[in-house]
Amino acid sequence: MTRSRAKGRPLAWGVPVLAEAAALGRSVAFAWAIGPDELGRAMMLALTVRLVEMASDLGADRLMLQARDGNSARLQADLHATLLLRGIAGAVLLLVLAPVLARLFADGPSTLSYALLAAVPLLRGVAHLDFRRAERSLRHVPMALVEGGATLAMAACILPAVALFGDHRAMLCVLVAHALAYAALSHLVAARRYRLRLSPPALLRVWRFGAPLLLNALLLFVTFYADRLIVAGAYDWATLALYGFVLQLALLPAQIVGRAAASIVLPQLRVALGQGRLASVWRPVLAAHAGLAACLVAGFALCAPGAIAVVYGAELRPDAGLAFAVGLAAGFRVLRTPFSQLAVAAGRTGDPARANLVRALALLPAAAFAVLGLPLVAIAAAAAAGEAGATLRAWWLSAPALGRISNRESLA
């Protein structure tokens, strides 16, 4: 089992890294091919799909991984029905929101563009979950084929879509292509026949499991994406493209660190808690994340403006203040990572959400700054203040656990 886990780890982490790199490459390609204004509109389409996905995520795939009966064909059929209902609900929601969004953001994507996004959740709703079931036995190849193949299909679609449309509608093609490849590949790698079973008790079970995850997903959307919606509503599309690029680049290392910590740090903390030697593990973990955070802030502030100008074009070069503020926000997110992992290891799974509430509150001053027409750096400064507050809140919430363990170790 240990050997299988070691062999599967490169795939388990390589595929998400590939997805992040592909998303970054997509942004670069669109920046050069359609320009900042159209790129901002394209980002709005991607944000809309992301919002609908996060607002309907009840964690059916995670239930399959965690449930004792997760390998059963019956539960899999129940979860297929849940996914299909989720896809239909997401598609209907996008169709309803399409005219609202078209009117809300002036000179943005049309009602038809928003409506056609309904194909994305609908396609993902008919995916086969067998590749997730394979992960129960640490077999990650099916997952790599599905998620990695869909990512490559998306990347292959970028240039043809840009050549065909030459504007933000290319993003629509790319998103639909990704969802289509994801669904098709999930069926190609499946070992079981695709079955649907609509069972009210099963739906209730999924709801009970996924409702807290749904609330946390909405909170994560607020902390990751809502400030970009504020920028979209108060500034022009080129400004949204600039802010979106800078934030995406700054948060990329933070997201990688977070995923690596879940694989490496969390098991260490769990074992240390069980053996009563948390202090010996916690101090180097915290020091390492603090060092990474400091390097991220300094490196991003110094290097990001020039690097972005070279990669994305001079029109999207951020000023030093914006780069520093966004880098500071990402640095505090990295620093918060070990506290979040400690909370999970100690069974306090609600603590990360409680800390993220502080980050969500930073949207209030950000919205006020946008209404007042302040420079973009003010929005980024509000984000940095929110991340700092969330990190302090996470530290405060972890104090009882750290103090209790420290006392136990000192007595020993």
Can you give a write-up of this model?
- The longest helix is centred in the N-terminal third of the chain and has 54 residues, at 2-55.
- With 412 residues, this protein is an all-alpha fold.
- Helix 1 (2-55) crosses helix 9 (200-234), helix 1 crosses helix 10 (237-275) and helix 11 packs antiparallel against helix 12 (320-345).
- It has 15 helices and no strands.
The SS-based structural class is mainly alpha
Secondary structure tally: strands = 0
Helix content: over 70%
Low-confidence stretches: 1-7, 408-412
Task: Indicate the overall shape.
Answer: globular
Q: What is the radius of gyration?
A: 22 Å
SSE string, helices as H and strands as E: HHHHHHHHHHHHHHH
Assembly form of the protein: single chain
Distance between the termini: 34 Å
Structural features:
412 residues, 15 helices, disordered N terminus, disordered C terminus
Topology:
Layout: H1 2-55, H2 60-66, H3 73-104, H4 111-116, H5 119-124, H6 130-135, H7 141-165, H8 169-188, H9 200-234, H10 237-275, H11 278-312, H12 320-345, H13 351-361, H14 363-371, H15 376-411
Helix pairs in contact: 1-7, 1-8, 1-9, 1-10, 3-9, 7-8, 9-10, 9-13, 9-14, 10-11, 10-12, 11-12, 12-15, 13-15, 14-15
